[in-house]
């Protein structure tokens, strides 16, 4: 697509990385500053007219609202209203699949701070996207080319 790519894991604080490496799941308090920083990156790209892809485990609806609207999503418990800092237009891609497939992929990953043992806590936290959020759900049981094609189709359809 020629878009900038960001991996949200690169933006976790050293404290968050240490906590996860010790097998301790992050909580909302740990994640909110990280999500606000990610929103700022997306806002900067949007302001410069650059499309971007962010790989991020935005597990809860509130987390996705922070990505779209920034800190005001927490303060007001709702997305920003149209105006100077209008909410970003984000298409969320919910990669959905059984825990055993995802666990198998995590087992093969090397050098990452999050151990596979934290996967269950992520499933426990997960609030799959729902209307009125802008999202598509793509099965991880498809091949990588099929997944990419499905995402590209959704992007091109606006």
TrEMBL record:
<dbReference type="GO" id="GO:0005524">
    <property type="term" value="F:ATP binding"/>
</dbReference>
<keyword id="KW-0418">Kinase</keyword>
<dbReference type="InterPro" id="IPR006001">
    <property type="entry name" value="Therm_gnt_kin"/>
</dbReference>
<keyword id="KW-0067">ATP-binding</keyword>
<keyword id="KW-0808">Transferase</keyword>
<dbReference type="GO" id="GO:0005975">
    <property type="term" value="P:carbohydrate metabolic process"/>
</dbReference>
<comment type="similarity">
    <text>Belongs to the gluconokinase GntK/GntV family.</text>
</comment>
<comment type="pathway">
    <text>Carbohydrate acid metabolism; D-gluconate degradation.</text>
</comment>
<dbReference type="GO" id="GO:0005737">
    <property type="term" value="C:cytoplasm"/>
</dbReference>
<dbReference type="GO" id="GO:0046316">
    <property type="term" value="F:gluconokinase activity"/>
</dbReference>
<keyword id="KW-0547">Nucleotide-binding</keyword>
<protein>
    <recommendedName>
        <fullName>Gluconokinase</fullName>
        <ecNumber>2.7.1.12</ecNumber>
    </recommendedName>
</protein>
<dbReference type="InterPro" id="IPR027417">
    <property type="entry name" value="P-loop_NTPase"/>
</dbReference>
């Amino acid at each position: 697509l020629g878009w900038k790519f960001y991996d949200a894991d690169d933006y976790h604080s050293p404290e968050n990385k240490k906590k996860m490496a010790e097998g301790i799941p992050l909580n909302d308090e740990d994640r909110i500053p990280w999500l606000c920083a990610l929103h700022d990156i997306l806002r900067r790209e949007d302001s410069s007219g650059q499309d971007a892809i962010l790989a991020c485990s935005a597990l809860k609806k509130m987390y996705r609202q922070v990505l779209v609207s920034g800190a005001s999503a927490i303060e007001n418990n709702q997305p920003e209203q149209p105006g100077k800092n209008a909410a970003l237009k984000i298409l969320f891609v919910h990669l959905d699949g059984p825990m055993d497939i995802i666990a198998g992929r995590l087992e093969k990953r090397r050098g990452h701070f999050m151990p596979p043992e934290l996967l269950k806590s992520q499933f426990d936290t997960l609030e799959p996207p729902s209307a009125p959020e802008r999202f598509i759900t793509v099965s991880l049981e498809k091949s990588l080319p099929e997944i990419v094609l499905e995402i590209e189709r959704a992007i091109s359809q606006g």
